[in-house]
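Justification of computing resources. Each target in the renewal requires a structure prediction run like the one illustrated here; the chain below, 474 residues long, is used simply to show the kind of job we budget for.
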Amino acid sequence: MNTNSNIVERLATLVGAADLLTDPSDMEPFLVDWRQRLRGNARCVVLPRSTEQVSAVVAACAEAGVPIVPQGGNTGLCGGATPGAGDLPVVVGLRRMNRIRAIDRENNTITVEAGCILKQVQDAAAEADRLFPLSLGAEGSCQIGGNLSTNAGGVHVLRYGNTRELTLGLEVVLPDGRIWNGLRGLRKDNTGYDLKQLFVGAEGTLGIITAAVLKLFPVPQATVTGWVGVESPAAAVRLLDSMQASLGPRLVAFELMADLPLQMALAHSDGAQPPLASAHPWHVLVELADSGDEDDLQELVLDVLEAASEAGGVADAALAQNIEQSREFWHLRETIPEGQTRTGYSIKHDISVPISRIPEFLDRGAQALAKAIPGIRIVPFGHLGDGNLHYNVTRPVEMTDGDFAAKTPDVNRIVHELVHEFHGSISAEHGLGQVKRDEAARYKSQVELDLMRAVKRAFDPAGIMNPGKILAGT
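Resulting structure tokens:
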């Protein structure tokens, strides 16, 4: 029988010395979160190359009673893939399981291993003349396993849905080492509990996702990207309603940002120019796609924008004239987090509320925070089309980073209490990890917590899978 003390030697025999890291300098990148704010420890890092190796590793750890932390690209923002305090876990990194197993063009599916980089999956789909629509800022480094484990969202949720909606089947190594092969490319399968959905968004607390069957779509033949200056969030909501009514599923993305985050992005983007000639208090970035002619799509978009302008609230707009300009528009949107980071210490929130209530939420949130911390800089931006905002705040100009960081609990309480009042969520697409674990428990009902704990106990009675994440005390 394996013991806790010889587990490292046992794992070396299962994966080989080259795929087992024990040197502190080699393990360091696996022990620190992407934002460099959390750090844990581990007895070793295992880098398996197959599902069978993952199964053997998990079975050995289960027998020895050693906790496991699954890790993908380590780009998460809530510490879900970072080891926490407590017993030294084994980190299981999936980066070497990065094969595209199959593409079925006629079934519009792609089967991939969990260690595939998101951009790799997008490119493989494109080579088959198909679209994999999941798109987010970290797509060049995040891995599909992490996207699945956090139910990643991104900019195209409005049309294509979250990762959950893009998933048809999974392969999962369970906490006892058994392999569940649910790699079915079916859109209809009404034969009992939909087990795969328990693992999507579970952040590795119920098992390790090793492969997935994902939905593909025909590649749009026409794409239109536009930048719109609006007077207020309420005007943006009205514009969203008009576009959805007139353009339907052609509307792929609808991003809202205040002028401050745009200015932060411009200040830290070499050579970047404002998309519009004059200043506006709020901005909307839209993208539309269709199977028809691009000129016809542009005309449809212009008609909607003209009608919105006549109705009031839409001040100016520009449509990208080529792919380069479209990329420039999106680059500004994607540079906001970096620009904010360079401006000063920031406290970040990933929240969602009903779309209809976003204007009121933004107004009341700004008032409450300004009263609590005079001079605080509110930096709201995000996916208005699905009700998800990155409601970030940056320190006042005269305040030190340290002093502002110390106010994190107060700021979080103001924002999260307001989100709760609006029947929203304090984590729309980033997950809970260890950063939001206790906050989520504050706002979930006891019934919800009891059900979640029951699921955890059923799958992982020994509590070895990613302990301390999502649920306190697990």
